[in-house]
Amino acid sequence: MIGVSDTVEETARGGEFEEEFDAFYARTYPWLAARAVMLSGNRQNAEDAVQEAYIEAMRRWPEVRAYASPEAWVTTTMRRKLSKDGRRWWFRWKPVEMAETTVPAAPTATVEETAEALAALRALGTLPPRQRQVVVMHSLEGMSYRAISAELGISVGSVGSNLNKARARLSLMLDVSPELGRPTERLLTRTPEDPLTAVLYGAAEWLSDGFRGDARSGFRSDAARNGGPDGIRERR
C-alpha cells in the first residue's frame, strides 16, 4: 500500500526532475538547434526535429539523465529524426538559400560576423543533403568516419568521399585554404585549427546566439507555442 509519505516523495522527485530537465534544455537547446539548421538547411524541419527529440527526452528523463552524456543522446535522436524525415524529400532536393530572415539572427553579432555566418550557411545550403550531413557531423560534432558510417548506414569510404567533396566546395566558396583544411580522423576540439571548421563553428555560434532567447523562455512554453508537449506544430 502506498502511503502519504511515498506520494509526497514521488511528487518532490518529479518536481526535481522537471527543474533539472528545464535547466538541461536551457543549456543545450541553442547549440542543438544551430546544428539541426545546419544539418537540414531548413529552419522548420530543424525546429520540429529538435522539439521531437526534447519531448522524447522529457518522457524518458529518469533514464536519459543517467546516461554519460544526455546531450549526446538528444543530439543523436535529433539527427535520426532529421535523417528519417529527410528521406521523403531528398529526391526533390535543390540548393537552399538561407538568409537572415529565415534563421534567428544573433542580437549581439557585428555586421561582419553576421555576413560571415550567412555566407557559411548559404554555402552549406548548396551541398547535397548527404554531403551536408557528413561535413556537419565530422566538423562540428567531431565524429569519426566510423561513427558517421554506423549512424548513416553508409560505408566508411562513402563518408570520406562525401566529406572530401563537401570540403572542396565549401573551401572554394568560402575562400579558405584546402591545404590547411584537409579532413582527418582526429576528433576536433572546440578551438579548431582547421580554417574551414573554424568558419563552420563561427556560423554555428552565430545561430546559437540567435536561438538563445527561445531557450530562456523554457521548454514548456516553447512546446506550448508549437502545439503542446504531446505534439509539435503541424508541418507546413
UniProtKB/TrEMBL annotation:
Source domain of life: Bacteria
Q: Where is the RNA polymerase sigma factor 70 region 4 type domain?
A: 119-170
Q: Which Pfam families match?
A: Sigma70_r2 (PF04542), Sigma70_r4_2 (PF08281)
| Biased composition range(s): Basic and acidic residues | 212-223
Q: Where is this region: Disordered?
A: 212-236
Coiled-coil positions:
none
Q: Which GO terms describe its molecular function?
A: DNA binding; sigma factor activity
GO BP terms: namely:
DNA-templated transcription initiation
Per the database record, which ranges form the RNA polymerase sigma-70 region domain? 25-83
Xref: InterPro entries = RNA_pol_sigma-70-like (IPR039425), RNA_pol_sigma-70_dom (IPR014284), RNA_pol_sigma70_r2 (IPR007627), RNA_pol_sigma70_r4_t2 (IPR013249), RNA_pol_sigma_r2 (IPR013325), RNA_pol_sigma_r3/r4-like (IPR013324), WH-like_DNA-bd_sf (IPR036388)
Among PANTHER family, the record links this protein to: RNA POLYMERASE ECF-TYPE SIGMA FACTO (PTHR43133), RNA POLYMERASE SIGMA FACTOR HI_1459-RELATED (PTHR43133:SF8)
The protein here is known as RNA polymerase sigma-70 factor, ECF subfamily
Q: Which organism is it from?
A: Streptomyces melanosporofaciens
